[in-house]
């Protein structure tokens, strides 16, 4: 099966072939479910967090995960990699060889440590090098690394949610993990909240403003609805050509996974790209 993907720097893989969309969603939903089930296994016993220091990072708009060293147990991380690899192969058997090669290469503790460090700081040079050394596809390697890292970043976000306030932050990057805001939802009193698709952190953004360039000229800002679904639409900016997806989650049961909602609204990203919005239009690449 030949499938075309677009990748973002954070390793999320998008597919532009709608015929295989169902398989793709199923795989990612299974991975997301597994990631969420692993959060409770993560313990940050030795992580000293000073509330004032953390609050200062938010004020300076520095993602907290970039200024503290998130402790990761190499053995546990390797176990997470194996579990994500298993789910991937279960859904896409042609990935068997690739996944085996990655886990074999990681069996030396030394390599796992380097792999973890590269994952933390999104070092795509390391992944390109790792892929070349092992004759693999770099995008798949980085995707696997990112998914194994998610339980840690989500556990950190949960911990910080009780310690740090994000009021007045109003920025387009997640205050915890640094991911660019792709999704927002309506909140009480007509407010709007950005929802991190990577670590599930939620923070307030201005409703009548582009979250990326802060443009407030109403003639530059508009909604684009795809079909007749008013509950999921694009909010686009003519000034910077950026966009954010606005979703209505009022009817959503339980705690939503913003990663899944991001995947389920991928048609909106395609509409945005067709209409000339967003930066991902340039980076089409074939990876699996
Ligand atoms: Zn985040
Ligand atoms: Zn803008």
Automatic annotation (TrEMBL):
<dbReference type="InterPro" id="IPR056796">
    <property type="entry name" value="FdhE_C"/>
</dbReference>
<protein>
    <recommendedName>
        <fullName>FdhE C-terminal domain-containing protein</fullName>
    </recommendedName>
</protein>
<keyword id="KW-0963">Cytoplasm</keyword>
<dbReference type="InterPro" id="IPR024064">
    <property type="entry name" value="FdhE-like_sf"/>
</dbReference>
<dbReference type="GO" id="GO:0051604">
    <property type="term" value="P:protein maturation"/>
</dbReference>
<dbReference type="GO" id="GO:0005829">
    <property type="term" value="C:cytosol"/>
</dbReference>
<dbReference type="InterPro" id="IPR006452">
    <property type="entry name" value="Formate_DH_accessory"/>
</dbReference>
<dbReference type="Pfam" id="PF24860">
    <property type="entry name" value="FdhE_C"/>
</dbReference>
<feature type="domain" description="FdhE C-terminal">
    <location>
        <begin position="209"/>
        <end position="281"/>
    </location>
</feature>
<dbReference type="GO" id="GO:0008199">
    <property type="term" value="F:ferric iron binding"/>
</dbReference>
């Amino acid at each position: 099966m030949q499938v075309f993907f677009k990748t973002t720097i954070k390793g999320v893989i998008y597919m532009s072939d709608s015929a295989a969309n169902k398989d793709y969603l199923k795989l990612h939903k299974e991975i997301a479910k597994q990631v969420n089930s692993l959060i409770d296994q993560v313990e940050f016993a030795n992580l000293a967090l000073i509330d004032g220091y953390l609050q200062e990072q938010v004020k300076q708009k520095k993602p907290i995960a970039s200024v503290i060293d998130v402790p990761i147990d190499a053995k546990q991380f390797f176990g997470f990699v194996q579990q994500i690899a298993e789910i991937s192969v279960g859904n896409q058997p042609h990935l068997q060889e690739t996944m085996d090669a990655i886990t074999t290469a990681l069996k030396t503790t030394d390599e796992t440590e380097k792999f973890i460090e590269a994952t933390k700081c999104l070092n795509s040079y390391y992944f390109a090098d790792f892929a070349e050394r092992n004759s693999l596809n770099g995008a798949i390697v980085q995707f696997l690394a990112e998914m194994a890292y998610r339980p840690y970043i989500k556990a950190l976000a949960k911990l910080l949610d009780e310690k740090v306030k994000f009021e007045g932050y109003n920025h387009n990057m997640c205050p915890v993990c640094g991911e660019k805001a792709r999704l927002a939802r309506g909140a009480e009193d007509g407010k709007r909240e950005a929802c991190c698709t990577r670590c599930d952190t939620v923070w307030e953004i201005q409703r009548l403003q582009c979250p990326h360039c802060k443009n407030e000229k109403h003639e530059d800002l508009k909604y684009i609805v795809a079909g007749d679904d008013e509950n999921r639409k694009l909010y686009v900016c003519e000034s910077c050509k950026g966009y954010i997806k606005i979703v209505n989650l009022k009817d959503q049961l339980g705690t939503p996974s913003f990663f899944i909602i991001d995947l389920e609204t991928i048609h909106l990203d395609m509409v945005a790209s067709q209409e000339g919005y967003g930066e991902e239009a340039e980076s089409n690449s074939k990876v699996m």
